[in-house]
Amino acid sequence: MSPAWLLENSLVAGPLALAVALFVRLCAPRPAVAHCLWLATLGVLLMPRLPWIETPGAALRRELRAQLGLVPTAPAEPVPVGPQPSAVDLLRLAATATDEAPAAAARVAAPVAAAPAGLGRAAWIGPALGLAWLAGALVVLVRSLRRIAPFQRLVRRSPRAPRELCAEVRHVARALGVRAPEVRLVAGVASPSIWCLGRPRLLWPAGAPDLGARARRALIAHELAHLARRDHWVSWLDLPAAALAWWNPLFWWIRGHVRHFAELSCDAWAVWAYPADRRFFAEALLELQATTRTAHVPLQGLGATDSECKDFERRLDMIMRKGTFPRVSRSAMLAAAVVAALAAPGFSVGGEETCSAPAPVVAAVEARAKSVKLSDEAVQLLKDGDSKGALALLRELVALEPENAWAHGRIGLLLVDAGELDAARASFLRQYELGHDRPTALY
Question: Rounded distance, CA 240 to CA 20, Å?
């Protein structure tokens, strides 16, 4: 996947993201529905090339490629480039002044050499952008690894949680229908979180204040909801996606909404599982949110009180209101999948569009250059007295240029010499049909 491809995807993902933002703001759907829509939009933005079916998104992507000049387009009609002498003219030149034939052939072959030169005037821009993109991706990967590796070592060195806390986690896991993860006490963090590098673990702050059993149960439910919703699957793709699209502000905007509504959805799960504990849950979030900003170790993984979650007041308001079942219905998931499939720029016949428009023009110029070469070689063989070799080259020339009247006439003369009068008569008639008058055509 290249920056140009992501830029083309942005043509579709950008309007789709605006539509999703408008829908969420006006209709205020459940957090899980909003998260599903934003996740589908992120998928459209990062969609790789998949040569399956034609979609509106593929048509928009091709239009963008044409507008940006990423694919050169051919004119509706071939544009003549300089004088293009016929094979007859070149053969006459070869018969009288053989030193002029190469110059004429060079004039015919000139468009083949001139076209790539015109297209490559700004050829350095692509490699330069590619190097800048790779450099930025490398910086993102290095910074992320410098942040992740020390925290991973800290998690491995951290002790296991007490039996009482592990028992609470298992009880909540059974209520949510998920497998209870391993629980570790991590020093320096101020909030619980799910660490999903490798096997998911629940990280609990070492020395955390006693929030009470009911608040602790709601916090555990929030964290385990990430596993129930498979948010850790999305988290596994977060680092490579950030390395690919680090330069694209649309990616960071969409990813921020995905994370925000993931947190709101997990809040809805916790409130749904323990509706009587909503006030204790809100008070615990307020206390942990205040201590997270001053924690010695920055919060990692899927956190309950992520400091990047901007709309914290909305979280508290949703927690205190009566909620509904937090999962996404099948109809909503199907609708999001259909929207993503229709808008996906990666779905296109034949995969990546190639520079196929100029192919007929280039093929015609190459065929013309080859015909000049065959004509020159045929004349040389005639001078050397090799009639059979000249006849073979002239027949190849006629196969390449069926309307080459001179070649048909020359073939007729050679067939007369060979005694094949019927075949010679056919060649002379074809020469006459192509515009030569009868005396000239039939000699």
Answer: 24
CA dist 66 and 83 (Å) reads 30
The dihedral over CA atoms of 332, 336, 337, 339, expressed in degrees to the nearest 10, equals 140
Considering 49-53, 87-91, 408-412, the range whose residues carry the highest mean pLDDT is 408-412
Q: Which residues pair with 50 in a beta bridge?
A: 347
β-pair type (302-303, 201-205): unpaired
Residue 327: its H or E element: none
Bridge partners, residue 347, by sequence: 50
Lowest mean pLDDT among 70-84, 208-222, 251-265, 390-404: 70-84
Q: What is the pLDDT at residue 64?
A: 61
pLDDT tens digits, one per residue of 420-437: 888 888 888 888 787 766
**DSSP assignment, residue 347?**
B
The arrangement of strands across the sheet holding 193-195 comes to 182-186, 201-205, 193-195, 302-303
Per mean pLDDT, which range of 115-129, 256-270, 281-295, 368-382 is the poorest? 115-129
Number of alpha carbons in the 13 Å side-chain half-sphere of residue 272: 18
164: confidence class by pLDDT, cuts 50, 70, 90:
very high
DSSP state of 296: S
Helix residue spans in 120-248 (DSSP H): 125-157, 163-176, 213-228, 231-236, 238-244
Cβ(61)–Cβ(47) under 8 Å? no
* pTM metric for this prediction: 0.64
Using CA atoms, how far residue 293 sits from 143, 260, 288, 299, 309, in Å, is 21, 18, 9, 9, 12
CA distances from 246 to 45, 132, 241, 307 (A): 13, 11, 8, 21
pLDDT at 438: 57
Phi, psi of 251 (to 5 degrees): -60, -45
